[in-house]
Amino acid sequence: MRIKSGNETVKLFAFLVLLQIFLIAFPMAKASRTKNETLTQNFSYMYFAKLPKNPNVYKSVTTYSDAELSKKASQLQPNSKIGLKKILTNKKGTPVFQLGNGTYAKASFQDFYDDKVLTKEALEKPRKYWTSDRVVVYQDPYVSGASPKKSSLAIYSKIQISQQAETHHGRYFYVKGQGWLDEKTLTLKDVRIEKVEEVLKKKYADSSKYSIYVKQLDSGKVAQINADKPMYSASVSKLPLLYYVQDQLNKGKIKASQSLTYSSAVNSFKDAYKTEGSGTLSKTADNKPYTISDLERHVTQYSDNVATNILGYYVAHQYDKDFQKTIKSAIGEKWDMKERKVSAKTAGKMMEAIYKQNGDITNYLASTDYDNQRISKNISVKVAHKIGDAYDYRHDVAIVYGDTPFILSIFTENASYDDITAVADDVYRILRWRCRKF
After folding, report:
1. Cα–Cα 20 to 30 A to 72, which of 54, 189, 283, 286?
2. Is the pLDDT of residue 30 over 50?
3. Mode of pairing for the β-strands spanning 393-400 and 406-413
4. Dist. CA 332–CA 368, nearest whole Å
């Protein structure tokens, strides 16, 4: 007889222990169970034992006119209202639902489910998201039959979530004081400017009459179509002068209260505007004094050509080298004050430079005779803008003071004021988000 080694003895002992555990845990299950017990257990995994509170189906499910499921009646569709009356067992021993309309369907877990909240939990640390182009808020995490609730949440707005939940329809996030939103309608980053570009390309890029430039002033992100296309800018070319006047005020070289005389010379230098254009000042020289601040208001509020000429003559020195150097330093390119042919992008950069000066010019530009048209027509927040009209050209360049201000420069040829308004409304709808206080 061979003597077992120490290792073999240990292995045999371990085998016997495991065998004992196995027999205790699984005492000849199949052999000892009755046929009915096994059938009942299988049914519990395959069929409902009681009516689901909020029944739904995974896919289209056939209903029958009889409990034996032999005569087809109709179809149940996912997320439709399903009324279940009771559960019964047909002659084949199959559990079936009797529906409220008298039809029947197999009470199978493969077809039906109880549409309810599966999990809900508070987050250890709140998370920040952005809403997209649709905001649908629910009182509770969405399940079939739930209706949206009224909410003040805006599209493309920044939000903070404090809870999350799972349902059969996906993951839902809770915004305090508002309700539950589908995760699929939220983004982790600000994609508003990308959406602006998408809308501009979809609605306006195929038309040669539009040149549009948009820039978020907080992020520096830009959306544009045909933005580098030069057009005759008309009165938009008064923006460089307004910038230069504010620059000279900021440097202390002139004072707002300083008076300038309206002589005949101011309307005759080579880059002067024609006096018969817009404005309320006399079209012929009256030799009267006008303060710089008063002239600024005439240029901004009425787009006054004479006031422009007076400031251009005395303050900008007929747009001399210092003027040109200052403007180029501000926007990175030259602005031809005679030809006045620039792009929407150039005009937008000029308006941004004025915004950065933080002077009175922006306040003057926010109160003009043209606030009921073009960019500012339907926008409720402050809009500082400069219009331009000549021949078939109609333009508007603005700072829109939403919660995050942005530049909007729209140059058009053979377009209407309402066309400009439509573009502005499309852009503002996306960029106007109302900041929620966290």
Report:
1. 54
2. no
3. antiparallel
4. 28
